[in-house]
Specification:
4-stranded antiparallel beta sheet; 10 strands; alpha/beta; 555 residues; ABC transporter transmembrane region fold; Rossmann fold; 6-stranded mixed beta sheet; binds adenosine-5'-diphosphate; single chain
């Protein structure tokens, strides 16, 4: 960049020789020298520009890639509260648009500060050497330009922020459309979705137009000021040639330097406007990168070692952003037995399961496994020893085998197939075209509900963890699938500390202890028979809610 700036200044400098030696004196020897010099100057400028662009692009690309990797790692390390706050669309926009914005900021800074500022300085130096007085006069224009551009820059900030929000809205809309397409079609929501999407798109369009307008406004400001400066120089040049006998070469060199400086100066004005808009994106990205996860591991956290596997919740209270969900819960899940949580929807059952996984920390009380507070152990070792089978089985795009293999790192083929057999999944997997290599489709669309559940059970089988957290699916399966799933679950629960959010009578009957929850409290505890005898919430829930096996699901 220094070479580019120097050669640009040299090309202005040499205009004096071009005019005085070539045009006025016309000495053939000196003409050849000047011509040769011009070739050398432009050759160096060309090569230097090439090297500068290539190097800058490499730096830019590595910055974007580095930031994207860092952002992704950072997002994965965040707790659940962060992910609930941050819409997926914003995350996508951060990793795509805003990571690129950081690159533009750096490129703009490097090219404008590096090349353009250097060039302007070099050319202004040429101007001063050629004629200090008039140089000083033309420089008075600069403060006016700074004021005008400063006003534009302030306006850009708010426009850029709005643009980001609407851009994230478009991405979120697309995500929702992809995942919710069935609901959209079934409920004839096309019109509504289109209106919503169009609103976001049009807002981005409006903001983009505003941005272009602000950006373009730097041109009339700079052109007008440039015109004044040039006119001033012309007046002065005419006068100084007449009065002081300046050579035409000196005047032309000065004018060339000024005209050459005018271009990067104009670019600098424009850059400050664009720079501001990109800084907004970069700033938002760094805000995310600077968010410390609320849930931290202790510095001296050790790996959790489970022997028996007794889970205790002691006086746990928890609120989601001020809304109480659990109120002074104390309960114990004895080792190698099934603890069922039942209760109306919203009672806090899922919250308890999430707390055992340490998705969030309680506001008061503590959770222990074999007497160790789960806040004292590493998150990795805690979650490694817990298998979680949720209602909505999430399958990743990939093969059946891959999806089971997520259960345990480094599992062998043999172990994967054994887990599938134990989960009653081997049969249907082999019947699929491609067997274990068959693709499950986006979010498992190639599989039925019961099959998806059995894949999830196989995953948990493979994990072979001492603690099992189970959120029983509420949706009814056909009789055969139901029997298959129940049998597989039965096998999975054996020999583990199981906490199950139970919806099925068969599971509840089998449970060693049942905790009945309501409004964030445990209101009754006991076995099925105890609780039925005692009456109260359990008995009425039983009458209303709990389904038997699939055979009476349809009733
Ligand atoms: P259950 O599993 O028994 O249906 P939950 O544990 O899901 O109950 O919910 C307990 C309470 O916490 C409910 O009042 C619910 O609205 C609230 N809740 C659950 N998840 C969140 C969340 N992510 N943010 C805010 N409130 C939540």
């Amino acid at each position: 960049m220094i070479l580019v700036a120097a050669t640009t200044a040299a090309s202005a400098w040499i205009m004096e020789a071009v005019v005085d030696d070539v045009v006025v004196d016309n000495d053939p020897a000196r003409v050849s020298i000047v011509a040769a010099l011009v070739i050398v100057i432009f050759l160096i400028k060309g090569m230097a520009t090439f090297a500068q662009r290539v190097i800058l692009a490499k730096i830019g690309n590595s910055i974007v890639a580095g930031l994207q990797k860092r952002l992704y790692r950072h997002i994965l390390s965040q707790d659940m509260a962060f992910h609930q706050r941050m819409p997926g669309g914003e995350l996508v926009t951060h990793i795509s648009t805003n990571a690129a914005a950081v690159r533009s900021v750096l490129e703009l800074l490097i090219t404008s500060v590096g090349r353009d500022v250097l060039t302007v300085i070099a050319l202004v130096a040429v101007m001063f050497v050629k004629d200090p007085l008039i140089s000083l006069m033309t420089l008075f224009i600069a403060p006016v330009a700074v004021l005008g551009i400063g006003y534009l820059v302030r306006r850009v900030r708010s426009v850029a922020k709005k643009q980001f929000i609407n851009l994230a809205g478009i991405v979120t809309g697309m995500q929702e459309t992809a995942t919710g397409i069935r609901v959209i079609k079934a409920f004839n929501l096309e019109g509504k979705m289109t209106t919503r999407m169009n609103n976001s798109i049009e807002s981005v369009e409006t903001q983009a137009n505003r941005m272009a307008n602000l950006d373009a406004r730097s041109s009339p400001i700079m052109e007008t000021l440039g015109g004044f400066a040039i006119a001033l120089v012309i007046l002065y040049a005419g006068w100084s040639v007449r009065e002081h006998g300046k050579t035409p070469g000196e005047v032309v060199a000065f004018l060339t330097a000024m005209l050459l400086a005018y271009d990067p100066a104009k670019r600098l004005a424009k850059v400050s406007v664009i720079l501001r808009s990109q800084l907004v994106g970069a700033g938002l990205l760094y805000e995310v990168l600077d968010t410390e996860p609320a849930l931290q591991e202790r510095g001296d956290a050790e790996n959790l070692v489970i022997n028996g596997g007794v889970i205790r919740l002691e006086n746990i209270s928890f609120a989601y952003a001020g809304a109480p969900a659990l109120n002074d819960i104390t309960l114990e899940a004895p080792p190698q037995s099934v603890t069922a949580l039942v209760g109306p929807s919203g009672a806090g059952k899922s919250t308890i399961v999430g707390m055992i996984e340490r998705f969030a920390d309680p506001q008061s009380g503590r959770i222990t496994i074999d007497g160790t507070d789960i806040r004292d152990v590493t998150l990795h070792s805690l979650r490694e020893q817990i298998a979680f089978v949720s209602q909505d089985t999430f399958l990743f795009d990939g093969s059946v085998r891959d999806n089971i293999a997520f259960g345990r790192e480094g599992a062998t083929l043999e172990q994967i197939e054994q887990a599938a057999r134990n989960a009653n999944a081997d049969g249907f997997i082999r019947a699929m075209r491609g067997g274990y290599d068959a693709p499950v489709g986006t979010n498992g669309e190639n599989l039925s509900g019961g099959q998806r559940q059995r894949i999830a059970i196989a995953r948990a089988m493979l994990r072979d963890a001492p603690v099992l957290l189970l959120d029983e699916a509420t949706s009814a399966l056909d009789a055969q699938s139901e029997a298959n799933v129940q049998e597989a679950l039965e096998r999975l629960m054996t020999g583990r500390t199981t906490v199950v959010i139970a919806h099925r009578l068969s599971t509840i009957r089998r449970a060693d202890i049942i905790h009945v929850m309501d409004e964030g409290r445990v209101v009754q505890s006991g076995t099925h028979n105890d609780l039925m005898e005692r009456g109260g919430l359990y008995a009425s829930l039983h009458a209303l809610q709990f389904r038997g096996t699939s055979r009476d699901c349809g009733q």
